[in-house]
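Predict the holo structure. Ligand: inosinic acid.
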Amino acid sequence: MTVTIVGTQLGDEGKGALVDRYGGAADVVVRYQGGDNAGHTVVEDGTEYALSLVPSGAVRGKTGVLGNGCVVNPRTLFDEIDTLRERGLEPDVRVARRAHVIFPYHRRLDGIEEETKADADTGTEIGTTGRGIGPTYQDKAGRRGVRVADLLAPDRLGEKLSYVVPQKRAVIEDVHGLEAGEECDVGALQSEYAAYGRRLCEEEMTVDCGNYLADRLAAGDNVVFEGAQGTLIDVDHGNYPYVTSSNPTAGGATVGTGLGPTVVGDGEVVGVVKAYLSRVGAGPMPTELDGDADAEALATEIRERGGEFGTVTGRPRRVGWLDVPILRHATRANGLTGIAVNHLDVLAGLDELAVGHAYELDGETTQTPPATTEAWARCEPVVRSFEPWPAVDWDAVASEGYETLPEAARDYLSYLESELDTEVYTVGVGPDREQTIERVDPWARL
Ligand code: IMP
């Protein structure tokens, strides 16, 4: 049985807590795209673990798999595994032999491209995490990438690096007029990365991902597919070009693991929704609370209550009303069977409450975001007001169940269910693991 968990908005929806919750009944937690751009903190027995690549389930004694759709930085992988071991854990991590490898030249090129765009002052930089994600996926699609399996064959690794590294050097030096450094030293790269290959081999970490997962499923194991980032950052379905270079949407769980769409489609697909919208950095946000003092005061109140500050940078996130066109788009693109709504407590006791129900664009009303980011920036929200709910004893509500939520909060959730034609499975009413109302257990549906 499988449960796929995806972000419906722009990341930071609180997916980690849900992966934790559903991972409890899982045997295997699989990431199917992205790499060490997905920072998350896991708290286990009072100890905090900051991970960006190892799936959080591995901290809890599950098998964590990095699927073939991932891009793997072995330095990060082994740093994280070693840190977990120093703390007394023995994480079981498997890596797909078809996954692609991030090299130091990918990170360098990621930084150079962002700086070049910033210097041009055209506002076209993406604000990437600088981890080399985009350049590694470019090499994958360009058929010049190095896969995990190549690390296990030092001669083949050497041949591939000898072909690709001079190209990277030429881009750094001839296109950008910069000096290439140790990231372009073929010999050094070959020996460092062949050593990672030996370690992967010694620790029996590499798998043929599709076969491995099919065997685990056939043995009756439960599998969680964990989508990193969010639907609006998907390279196909997001606000291009302000996207990551992979497919966080549920379709990614099939191509990124080697299991067919029927396997994912036979399972549950749960979309994580924050009860309002937040956004890091530039880009359109039609429901943003800004422009006048009242709106900005509301944004400040929600931001402070919801802790809407970047985990790494501390940068305040932009805040807006829930954007329902985004959610309609995410529901369709992911084929959601249910949603998990987080941060409902953050909106309690506000003087006013609204959602962006639809958009006005060029005199027409539209129900989903337009295909281009330029048109999206011209959308005006069609706002629908809701009665705010009072602050209550959320711990009591979490333990007593959905029916004890304030009526106005249930109205808000019912509206979402009817607009998205899907069910609310869980409701987050506080930051702790216990502060969640579970209404539908997806494993029980299967
Ligand atoms: P990249 O994935 O580093 O190439 O970054 C591309 C875009 O995706 C940037 O806007 C990043 O801020 C965003 N992004 C990447 N990973 C995450 C994440 O885990 N959460 C939220 N945004 C992310």
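The chain is about 35% helix and 20% strand. The first strand starts at residue 2 and ends at 7.
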